[in-house]
Every structure is written in structure tokens, then in C-alpha cells.
Automatic annotation (TrEMBL):
Residues 272-380 are annotated as: Disordered. This is Serine aminopeptidase S33 domain-containing protein. Residues 290-305, 312-380 have a biased composition (Basic and acidic residues). SUPFAM superfamilies: alpha/beta-Hydrolases. InterPro entries: AB_hydrolase_fold (IPR029058), Hydrolase_4 (IPR022742). It comes from Papaver somniferum.
Length: 406
């Protein structure tokens, strides 16, 4: 059953360009990999890489170097795109944001081997991140994860397992795969990319960017994820922006620059302090209710549970403090109410008048109680009729514009 569900989910969720927009060849003079089929840019220092994953696939990645960079952006692109289509944007972002940028193709995308699946994308981003650490000496606290659309899935999955990560950027993110198709209120076991459950586990600053007129992944997805962030950064809601054109808005690059400037000033000591303990993805990975049952159960479950327990205890502690404060306020209010009633009773001679006074005091309390009842939940818009249009997440033509056009 799990395999069938996973296969169906992959069919609806993943749309790799066919044929790929680029090819990878070996440069005979240097022995290094190069990408063909993309426009060449002068003074661009970029490595083309083939990275093995623990699931047996080889993912193709591009590492764009900036000599002035202090931070590294690990970019997970959207659907129906590959490195050939994203390359020019990667170069522009590296230049304008003054960062090193690592972009990669998911298994089954571009020239990466294997087939697209939720579990494969998790393995793909983890392998790419490990390559940054082991081959470029990149430190965890100097990494910013950037996830666009479907890429928000592997981005948030890795972010929950990196406790000293510098920051996360979510670009037109999804709450979950099923919620893109239909606005369900709860998470089902067969759903994929359960971002709504993972975002509270991210301990670093999070920037959310979303277009208000997005007709593929509704604006409410980005807004809800931002509301659930622990460390919120000022979001960017682009009025009139759709799913695939946010890069052409001048506010897009301006806000990203502002974010990067703020993140660069964050002290490493602050990132490493408190409950930000250093764990590897293997040690602190949260369990997944995944549809892809080919993954073997992962190790160090006890360590993960202890980490979550500490977070839960802190949250319970905060709630208990809030409850005590509310209780004290209620006691004070009752005392004040009693005092005012006693004053009224003393000033009146008649027992009947005292009873009427008490009733007049009780009636407003009842009225206030009725107004405290929560509003009924609003009915969500039924977008099931647009299912086949919505599941595409992004289409190939939407990536023609880049930062340089802004």
C-alpha cells in the first residue's frame, strides 16, 4: 500500500523537464565536469559536481563561488525546472547577495540519476549539504537554506535537523502536498512534505516570500507557515505576485539583501548559545510518516526524542506561566467585583434591592461570557475543481525571468 501511495504521490508532485535543458560533459583539458546548453557568463567561477547519495543516486550540482562571500546559500528549486534553467538566476543571486551558492537537481531531474520521490529529495539535499561541509569546509552556522515551492519540502526537512543553521528562506512554500490540491484541515499519513508540522521545529530565523495572487500555491500557505515560525523575520508579501514571477519584482532582491545584511550581523556565539546544540542530520532527524517505505528506520531515535522533549517542556512551562498569570488576573477581577457589590449592598436598605443589584451585576457577566465564545471556523474555498492545475506547482516557462531583469 505504501509503495502504491508513494508512486501516486510522485506522479502528481514531480514534473521534471523532459528532455533536460542541459548536458554534463567532461572537459578534456581539465578533467572537470562542465554543463552545456546554458549561456556562458564571463568572470563566473563555478564548479559542476556529481554527488552520490545514500540512496544510490548521483545528483548533479553547481557551486557558484563569490570571493567576498561570508555565507553560503543552499538552493532547492521549484518543480518543472532543472539546473540549466536555474543557472543564470543562481549566478545573479550569488553576485547581488554576495554569497556562495550551491544549487542541485533532485533525483530524476536534469542529469541526476534515479527517480523523483519525497525520500529521494531528502537524501539529495543531505548529500549536497555534506559535500559543502567536507569539500568546501562550509560551517553549519554559515549556511542559509533556500527552498522554492516544492523545494520547501527538503529545505524544511533538513532545517529541522541542523540546530546551528544560520537561516531559512521559503519562497512560495507549501503547507503540504495534499493541501495544495485540497484545503484539508488535518494531516493524513499518506500526505507528502508535511511542512506545517516541521516548521515549528526550526530554531533559526525564517524569511517567507509569497505572492498574494499565487494561483498554484495559495498565499495562505506562506502566511500560515510564517505564523508558525519560532524565529520570524519580516515576511515579503508581494502584492499581485504569482507563483513563478516573484524574482522580477524590485522588492524581491531588495528584501533579500536586507535579510542577508541582518543575518550576517548575527553573532556565531548567539547561534551556538541556549538550546542550539550541535547535532548532525543523522543524529537529530525527526521521524517522518512518509509514504515511501523503502527507507530503513533511522538511528538515534532516543536522541531525537530527548531534543523534542526539551522543546515541549519549555513550551509547557511557558503555557503554565501564562495560565498562572491569567488565574491571578481572574482572582483580582473577582475581588474587585465583590468589593463593588459590597459597597452597593451597604448603601441600600432593602433586601429586595440588594437582590436586584446582584442580578444586574450577574447579567453583564453572562453577556461577556457569550461574547468570549470563539468565532466559528470559516469555510475554506473549495479548490478541488482546480486540482490538475494546482498540482503542477510551477511550469517550465515561468523561469525565463531573473534578477537581472528587475
Amino acid at each position: 500500500m505504501g509503495g502504491v501511495t508513494s508512486s501516486m504521490a510522485a506522479k502528481f508532485a514531480f514534473f521534471p523537464p523532459n528532455p533536460p535543458s542541459y548536458k554534463v560533459v567532461v572537459d578534456e583539458s581539465t578533467g572537470k565536469l562542465t554543463i552545456t546548453g546554458i549561456p556562458k557568463k564571463d568572470n563566473v567561477n563555478a564548479d559542476v559536481l556529481s554527488i552520490p547519495t545514500k540512496r544510490g543516486n548521483e545528483v548533479i550540482a553547481v557551486y557558484v563561488k563569490n570571493p567576498l562571500a561570508k555565507l553560503t546559500l543552499l538552493y532547492s528549486h521549484g518543480n518543472a525546472a532543472d539546473l540549466g534553467q536555474m543557472y543564470e538566476l543562481f549566478v545573479d543571486l550569488s553576485l547581488h547577495l554576495c554569497v556562495n551558492l550551491m544549487g542541485y537537481d533532485y533525483s530524476g531531474y536534469g542529469q541526476s540519476s534515479g527517480k523523483p520521490s519525497e525520500q529521494n529529495t531528502y537524501a539529495d539535499i543531505e548529500a549536497t549539504y555534506r559535500f559543502l561541509e567536507e569539500n568546501y569546509g562550509t560551517k553549519e552556522e554559515d549556511v542559509i537554506l533556500y527552498g522554492q515551492s516544492v523545494g520547501s519540502g527538503p529545505t524544511l526537512d533538513l532545517a529541522t535537523r541542523l540546530r546551528r543553521l544560520r537561516a531559512v528562506v521559503l519562497h512560495s512554500p507549501i503547507l503540504s502536498g495534499l493541501r495544495v490540491i485540497y484545503p484539508v484541515k488535518k494531516t493524513y499519513w499518506f500526505d507528502i512534505y508535511k511542512n506545517i508540522e516541521k516548521i515549528p521545529l526550526v530554531v533559526c530565523p525564517v524569511l517567507v516570500i509569497h505572492g498574494t495572487a499565487d494561483d498554484v500555491v495559495d498565499f495562505s500557505h506562506g502566511k500560515k507557515l510564517w505564523e508558525k515560525c519560532k524565529e520570524k523575520y519580516e515576511p515579503l508579501w508581494l502584492k499581485g505576485g504569482s507563483h513563478c514571477n516573484l524574482e522580477i519584482y524590485p522588492e524581491y532582491i531588495k528584501h533579500l539583501k536586507k535579510f542577508m545584511s541582518a543575518i550576517e550581523k548575527v553573532s556565531n556565539l548567539k547561534i551556538e548559545s541556549g538550546h542550539h546544540s550541535q547535532h548532525s542530520p543523522e543524529q537529530s532527524e525527526p521521524p517522518r510518516n512518509s509514504v515511501d517505505h523503502r527507507d530503513k528506520p533511522r538511528l538515534s531515535m532516543d536522541l531525537r526524542q530527548k531534543s523534542w522533549s526539551s522543546v515541549d517542556q519549555r513550551e509547557k512551562s511557558r503555557l503554565s506561566v501564562d495560565q498562572r498569570e491569567k488565574s491571578r488576573l481572574n482572582v483580582d477581577q473577582r475581588e474587585k467585583s465583590r468589593a463593588s457589590i459590597d459597597c452597593k449592598e451597604k448603601s441600600r436598605a432593602s433586601t429586595d434591592r440588594r437582590e436586584k443589584s446582584r442580578e444586574s451585576v450577574d447579567l453583564p457577566d453572562k453577556a461577556r461570557t457569550s461574547t468570549d465564545q470563539p468565532d466559528k471556523a470559516r469555510n475554506s474555498i473549495d479548490r478541488f475543481g482546480n486540482m490538475m492545475r494546482s498540482v503542477a506547482f510551477c511550469n517550465i516557462d515561468c523561469l525565463k525571468h531573473t534578477v537581472s531583469e528587475a
